[in-house]
Amino acid sequence: MAFASGLIEARRFTETRTPRARAFSRAAAKTLCAVAACAAAIGAPASAQAAETGKVGLGLPLLTSPFWQSYNNYLGTYAKQMGVDVLAPVNSNNDPAQQITDMNNMINLGAKGIVVGPIDSAAISRALESAAQKNVKVVAVDVAPTQGAVAMVVRADNRAYGEKACKYIGEHVKSGKVVQIMGDLASVNGRDRSEAFRACLKSYPNLSLLEIPAGWKGDVAASALDSLLTANPDVKGIYMQAGGVYLSPTLQTLRRKQLLFPVGDPKHIVIVSNDGIPQEYEAIRKGEIDATVSQPADLYAKYGLYYIKAALEGKTFKPGKTDHDSTIIQLQPGILEDQLPAPLVTKQNVDDKNLWGNTIK
What sequence ranges are listed for the domain Periplasmic binding protein (predicted)? Predict the structure, then answer.
């Protein structure tokens, strides 16, 4: 604003003075322009940069999970580093209808871009359509929409989650019943993990599958698992699709049923989770669970903001390898997904300092 007002005053001065004065004023105006250009070259303040692209809204699916709590904390850190001017994050409390309302509210508050973790892959299309009509860019994090325009989907390969969990259990359980505690099947994440685990388990004919559709709700998972274990006390393995919501209820249920034995005990139930939160790492160290797939909360926040900033600057991307150890694929015409790495964490690498779950203080 200071540079702009200076330029206006210089022009006014030029118009009202003598020829000699006007020449001097033109030189002054050029000097102001040069200073402004110099400031732009060395990097204007974050607020000035943000003013050029507009504010960014942040939509959280829920905050009851340690995973999303960590993601939310990372957003503030990376927004500051990148100079992204963000609105206060909004929590939709796992309600797809509320999420649509929240996104519309962010647009009404002046958001030119939105980074959102879709709750329902299909329902989010309504909000995406509304955003597109108002030329608001959207980046989807963690969950891909089934339709609708997004600048990028930032996500790990969720089919690989199910496959990694299945292979670990298949290698450590020779025969018996295996339980899959599923996420919300209205979410592409829940479907991908469930389908991949189910398909992979067919490679282990001595294992039989039992499933619990829990919709990312810990209380639902606990109640269903309690009933299932009453009828099937000989369960040998459990795959939890989200440690952030299922870890504590599952361990509490096993403990109450007197079925929680440490790794190495012949009665131990092999347990693999998803998320990579500190609580899972502690459970691995204690021998309560065997492994988890580290879903990169830090990278979701970092690259969610990276891609929304790029979209607001008019940048586009193509399928292929990235410079941050991931691959951009085409999900469907017009929708790209940056598939970020998600390693399997076991007793052998649980203390790796590069894992985001070990960086939280």
Answer: 57-315
Name the residue range of residue 30's domain. 2-43
The two three-digit tokens of residue 159, written as one number: 């089919």
**Do 289 and 174 reside in the same domain of the chain?**
yes
Quote the tokens at residue 290.
Answer: 């065997």
DSSP state letters, 239-256: EES-HHHHHHHHHHHHHH
CA dihedral (148, 149, 153, 159) positive or negative: positive
Predicted confidence (pLDDT) per residue in 111-162, tens digit = 999 999 999 999 999 999 999 999 999 999 999 999 999 999 999 999 999 9
In angstroms, the first-to-last Cα distance of the chain is 40
CA torsion angle 200 204 208 211 (round to 10): -20
Distance of CA 118 to the CA centre of its chain: 9
Determine which helix (DSSP H) or strand (DSSP E) holds 207, and give its type and residue range.
strand 207-213
Residue-wise pLDDT for 9-42, tens only, equals 333 333 334 443 444 344 433 333 333 333 333 2
Q: How many domains does the chain have?
A: 3
- Looking at the structure, do residues 38 and 13 belong to the same domain, yes or no? yes
| Pair 166, 257 in one domain | yes
* Per-residue pLDDT band at 361 (split at 50, 70, 90): low
β-bridge partners, 291: 272
